[in-house]
Amino acid sequence: MKFSDIDFSAISRMMDNMSDEEKNKLNDMAQNMMNNMKQNEEPEEETDFYEALNINEEDYADFPGSVLDQIEAGSDLEVYYEDVKDVDFSASALFYAKATLNMLRKYIYPVFKNFFDGFNNPSTTTIYSYLYPLMNDDNIHKLFDEAFGTPEGWMELKNALQQIYIILNRAEYDFVSYEDLQLLKDILFNQEILLKIKNL
């Protein structure tokens, strides 16, 4: 039965012919039905992104709000497709890449602008902007000689950014598989690259 099929005037006439006692019984019956329906509804369990990504909220407490929002968006988009593994996870990957770029702009840009060309404005930098100087071992040694990080730390960042850059290109121009996304999350959260960017 559609809502438009209900004859409200007939219901109104029927209610007018009922005694107060009958009206009260009908109201009680309707209320009981509503209460039973509410009890039978399963409460929706919400998992926050810290739990979904198996990361410690305290470790990320002083991250920029925009970065946390992007991590949450990436996680939410993956959860949206949790029952389907053969879809394109590009949207989720793009948000994780944005979070990475914003971390690089906040924590690595202030160092790189003193050493390398092309670092005139953080908002014009890309992930490749930070990867390119690290492709040259001399630059890694230059950073270390000036007491910025360790060669191992910069090499780890270089390797991570290479993989993130590949997945970002797939997200922009091709298809990001479930496995690609798990690799990206492993780099960012299990290998803790986002935390290491902050502490380099």
List keywords for this structure.
2 domains, 200 residues, 67% helix, mainly alpha, 0% strand, 10 helices, elongated
State the total count of DSSP E strands.
Answer: 0
Low-confidence stretches: none
What is the ordering of alpha helices and beta strands? HHHHHHHHHH
Number of domains: 2
Q: From the alpha-carbon coordinates, what is the Rg to the nearest angstrom?
A: 28 Å
The structural class is mainly alpha
Provide a count of the helices: 10
The amount of beta strand, in percent, is under 5%
What's the helical proportion of residues? 55-70%
Instruction: Write down the overall mean pLDDT.
Output: 87
Biggest sheet descriptor: none
Précis, in short:
This protein is mainly alpha-helical and 200 residues long.
Describe the secondary-structure layout:
Layout: H1 8-16, H2 20-40, H3 49-53, H4 65-80, H5 90-112, H6 127-134, H7 137-145, H8 151-173, H9 178-190, H10 193-199
Helix pairs in contact: 4-5, 5-8, 5-9, 5-10, 6-8, 8-9
